[in-house]
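Review session, final week

We close the course with one last complete record, chosen because it touches almost every idea we covered. It is non-specific serine/threonine protein kinase, a protein from Artemisia annua with 484 residues. Go through it on your own first, then we will talk.
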Amino acid sequence: MEPAYYIRRHHKHNPSNQQCISVVVKHIKAPVDIVWSLVRRFDQPQKYKPFVSRCTMQAGDLNIGSVRQVNVKSGLPATTSTERLELLDDDEHILGIKIVDGDHRLKNYSSILTVHPEIIEERSGTLVIESFVVDIPDGNTNDETCYFVKSLINCNLNSLSEVSERMAVQDQRGGEIGVDEDRKERRTLQRKAAEAQVSSEEEEQMLRNLEKKETEYMRLCRAKTTGEVFAMKKLKKSEMLSRGQVEHVRSERNLLVEVDSRCIVKLIYSFQDSDYLYLIMEYLLGGDIMTLLMREDILSEDAARFYMAESIMAIHSIHQHNYIYSNLLFSKNFIFSTQGPFIRSLNIDGFLEIKAPILSSFNGHSARITSMRLFPLKETWLFRNETYINENVLVTSSCDHSIRLWSKDRCQRAFRGHNGPVTVLSDKLLGDENGKVFAIAGEDSTVRLWSHSSSGKRGQKSLKATLYGHEKPMLLVPPLKQLT
């Protein structure tokens, strides 16, 4: 069935003259039951909605009439939203909500979301349709309001697509292949699809210039065949050759093709002609950090903390794939979609692939290493001789639930205690000279303090404290102040 059939059948609204109405359609390469299992959880919208930080049920048992309160992530133009479940049909896969209160711009907002089976590339897929009606704020036009709301919905549905497709891959492979291998396989398929694209600049309708440099142009364009809006990066080949930047551009393209991260702008496809290389990338609406500061003037502590944490994770996502950003401009090279900050690659000589020789090889963890920190050797029980006063101890955490201390090219100590993967290490030692500890956090939602000066004698435990209270897995520990 065509989307128009389902829209006529299920998506019925009665807007007033001061309201706008529109619809968003998304095709997802995952079966209906997987997609519906995410959409149906009225009490857990954060499973796929990137704006939601927390959801608490205020009334009901997840049937019609149930009410939830949603907390929005810091830094966005909203804080809370109280929403009521208006429609629910598990057979037809229909869910409708209405916003009844909250601190946000969406007054008298109601939406209907339906999911329908379809075949995509000879496999079971899902057609998702979400329609809405909302008041037009004073000073805004119908088109401006619809554009804003559709941008939010598109981000939600894109996230729903990513989560659903990942679950579908895991189900199909029976859980035998981990998430990292699933992503690698998907990136390979995406790369083949991208390289198979045959395009030309004439197939893109130019809307406006975004940025211009000596060797490149960044333009906003619309695909004439589909109407989708993209960012086009146009690189002049003669300038790349004369400046010796061919390898830099190749590294940049390889990174965009190979890395599957929400923090790095996505490369849709690339093509070239005799004079130029073209990179077609997703267009992010939020502007860069400089635009944010000009608009807000001063950020609140919560907003600044949010943007800094997201920016650190974006840089970390590059480092995880053996790339470094050699000329990162914080005010220009971070741009925002409605999901948060993303690194963009506008600096042609920005990426350098790491090709350093291997100096040491540490083998001991039985699963992926999640964090690494260097601490002074003299502050640990490993210190025995003034000859080594300037040396460091490498501390690593891992998904095998352990922390290991490395010195002299071998593991000197292993700590175990978490009931899940250890995700983060503190960047500083805490405490006084006689009892320094370091903090680690894990997916079991606890923080544990481990002694760095324990000699390991009988009765002298390394684990000094376990801190409880977090409701979610710990994924990021900010820099810690020295405590005494």
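Two points worth writing down before the exam:
The mean pLDDT is 73.
The two ends are 67 Å apart (CA to CA).
Good luck, everyone.
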